[in-house]
Design brief:
This protein is an alpha+beta fold. Helices cover 55% and strands 19% of the residues.
Length: 406
Amino acid sequence: MDILNLIRISVKALLRNKTRTALSMLGIVIGIAAVIAVVNLGEGLKQSTANQLSEMGTNLIMVMRANQRRGGVSMGGSNVQTLTVRDCELIAQNAKNITMVSPVVNSAGQVVNGAKNWSGTVYGGSPEYLDIRKYEIATGVNFTDDDVRKYAKVGLIGQTIVKELFESNEDPIGKTIRIGNIPFKVIGTLKEKGENSMGMDQDDIIIMPYSTVQKRMLGVNYLQQIVCSAASEDVAEAAVTEVEQVLRASHKIPEGGNDDFEVRTQQEMLEMMTSMTSMITTVLIAIALISLLVGCIGIMNIMYVTVTERTKEIGLRMSIGAKNAAILMQFLTESIILSLIGGVLGLLLGLGLSYVVTLVMSLPFVVNGLWMVIAFVSCAVLGLIAGFFPALKASRTDPINALRYE
């Protein structure tokens, strides 16, 4: 039988009952759309995470306090007091692949300006902290090393703090606001950065000299973190090794002993975030594939019903010379056409859904071409499988019994 003629006959047969044909395709459409939307959203989330980590600096290295362990059980790192300003000085002196180092301490507090107040986060660092963390000054100036030595009560505020504590036309520079009971002068504002990959507002921040936060707010002499900038991304691993060697020597950790610190790079954080995102995406894809399978079962069910309804037609065609193979190919073609049309509609719907959701969530719109091909090919294969058994049943119909069928 001519293939074009076979397709024309199959399309006419499907159009006899448009509602049933549409409902048969619905499962395929939903399944394919779900797969494409989930995959594209996962890719968009990965790209967003990579972009935001890149904005923080691909050569960023973070030194954190290691978790305490008792009897093999992690006790957390909040009470570990092993990082000091001296460690920063030693890293700056001895780590040749490190270009900038900054101590980091932080504290949450109520920020007050007149009748307005806001719960903000204060980060203490050295003047290099802004460059390391890729913060840019919008107005005003950065604090200096002299401010660090004098525990100066000065700071820079993010745009969220500006919006919450000041009027739209008010200049914050030079104004005195309070963190708890401690007044400090605003000497600069930071350019807007938006939310990070974890949904945290990067503009809800106050940056002050680390010594001010240590002595005037927290009353401690240790650090919560050290941030460093490697000379380039290519030497980041070498820089990590240098930092580890410096700190092990500074903390007098014996060979084979457990480090009381952790060193992480942006690449490690990116790999960790990507791994988490991939795991979630895989689970959602599995759920979407189940819905695709259900759609194929629906097509198989409809095809069985169609074969039963058209028993007389099958008998009539066989009685005038139609071969079993021709009957098999007709019903198989109908099933494949149903699947392919449903697949195309599902691809378009999936792309539309993923575009709208990424737009709403402010994520990059990324299309995974490989998964589109996989989904479409899977759709065709599942349609072939779904239609084979009903088509086989139709091709084996006894024409005499078929003509007698009521």
